[in-house]
UniProtKB/TrEMBL annotation:
<comment type="similarity">
    <text>Belongs to the bacterial solute-binding protein 3 family.</text>
</comment>
<feature type="domain" description="Solute-binding protein family 3/N-terminal">
    <location>
        <begin position="38"/>
        <end position="262"/>
    </location>
</feature>
<protein>
    <submittedName>
        <fullName>Transporter substrate-binding domain-containing protein</fullName>
    </submittedName>
</protein>
<keyword id="KW-0732">Signal</keyword>
<dbReference type="Pfam" id="PF00497">
    <property type="entry name" value="SBP_bac_3"/>
</dbReference>
<dbReference type="InterPro" id="IPR001638">
    <property type="entry name" value="Solute-binding_3/MltF_N"/>
</dbReference>
Length: 269
């Protein structure tokens, strides 16, 4: 009986070892293969949403980093021009880019996050001494508007610009536009409200920055998303993990807390 007992125990141990091996393989099969990778994202500096000078690369950088971190995914940010970031993402040279509008032209090439990472609200900036109101773009014909070369403002604004229905001066940089407004050479500057004030307080000392204000009527207000390249099919699962993390941040109130911190001025100059 002792001999047979040893055989039974030996077989039981072998069976248990096989069971444990099967469990390990099963658990590994459930683990998403993208968990161990570092996601490389490109974007142009757009203070305070994304900037190498800010902690966690700015508000949007912080949100993206923490949403991915909930799935044990690291993020590497690379600062580059918007056009290059989109092109490199489309080609699969980098994993993704962010703060982009969802358009039919982009959807064949990118996986979009389900939820936006920010809402971009564009308003007209002007000097406080400049009396300005508007209702439609037709009201803007008499004004000199500064806009950065290559930047999309809104579909209707760009249509009016191309048709010559409004007087738009395309300038190399936002800072140059602001300086031209101070000199009286431009009247209006369409920009996201947070970015606009961030640029103003970066470009000028406080006593000059306080000369600017904004019209309260939005030119446009649209959600902006994270984009991942479709060159890597695994990114479909990756964007779902991001969506899960972003939802957790929003449901917990952390997203709103970070945004409140941003607009309270602690992340602005």
């Amino acid at each position: 009986m002792h001999f047979y007992a040893q055989i039974v125990i030996k077989k039981a141990r072998q069976t248990w070892s096989i069971i444990k091996l099967v469990i390990v393989y099963w658990l590994l099969s459930l683990a998403d293969p993208v968990w161990a990778k570092t996601v490389v994202l490109g974007a142009e500096e757009w203070y305070p949403y994304i900037s190498p000078t800010l902690e966690d690369k700015g508000f949007t950088g912080r949100i993206i980093k923490e949403a991915f971190a909930l799935s044990k995914i690291d993020v590497e940010f690379r600062i580059m021009p918007w056009a290059r970031a989109l092109k490199m993402t489309k080609e699969g040279t980098i994993d993704g880019t962010f703060l982009w509008y969802k358009t039919p032209e982009r959807e064949p090439f990118f996986f979009f996050s389900q939820e936006p990472v920010a809402n971009i609200t564009v308003v007209f900036f002007h000097l406080k001494k400049f009396d300005f109101t508007w209702e439609t773009l037709d009201d803007l014909k008499k004004y000199r508007i500064g806009a950065t070369i290559g930047y999309h403002i809104s579909d209707q604004f760009d249509e009016y610009d191309k048709a010559g229905k409004i007087n738009v001066h395309r300038i190399k940089s936002d800072t140059q536009i602001l300086k031209m407004m101070i000199r009286g050479r431009l009247d209006l500057f369409p920009q996201d409200i947070l970015v606009g004030y961030g640029q103003i307080y970066q470009a000028f000392p406080r006593h000059i920055a306080m000369l600017f204000t904004n019209n309260t009527k939005p030119l446009t207000s649209r959600p902006a998303y994270l984009l991942l390249t479709k060159q890597d099919p695994a990114n479909q699962a990756l964007v779902k993990l991001f969506d899960k993390g972003l939802k957790e941040l929003k449901d917990s109130g952390q997203f709103d807390a970070y945004f409140d911190e941003l607009i309270s001025g602690s992340s602005l100059p």
